[in-house]
Design goal:
Strand content: under 5%
Order of helices and strands: HHHHH
Structural class: mainly alpha
Number of helices: 5
Number of strands: 0
Oligomer: single chain
Distance between the termini: 35 Å
Length: 85
């Protein structure tokens, strides 16, 4: 699987949680480079046997991962409509 879409997916998830996490950990947030955090997360995922096995079992490549992410984004939007924050 190419890393471009995985990078985008991880970056979106990190960015989605960053503000709340940074508010709880301001000193750490000031010291952490988000780009490096995303890169590090991708490296760890790619070396995680469970992640690799799950991707193989699901027979996912970048296109399938992108399609699955679009489905999850739609689900998140609908849940947001039903339970707005």
């Amino acid at each position: 699987m190419a890393s471009t879409y995985l990078r985008d997916l991880i970056a979106d998830r990190v960015n989605g949680r960053w503000e709340q996490w940074a508010a709880a950990h301001p000193n750490l947030a000031a010291a952490i480079d988000r780009t490096r955090l995303v890169d590090s997360t991708i490296e760890h995922l790619r070396s995680d046997p469970e992640f690799v096995a799950a991707m193989r079992q699901a027979d996912l490549d970048e296109n399938k991962l992108a399609a699955a992410a679009r489905v999850l984004e739609q689900l998140e939007r609908w849940v947001g409509r039903v339970l707005p924050l």
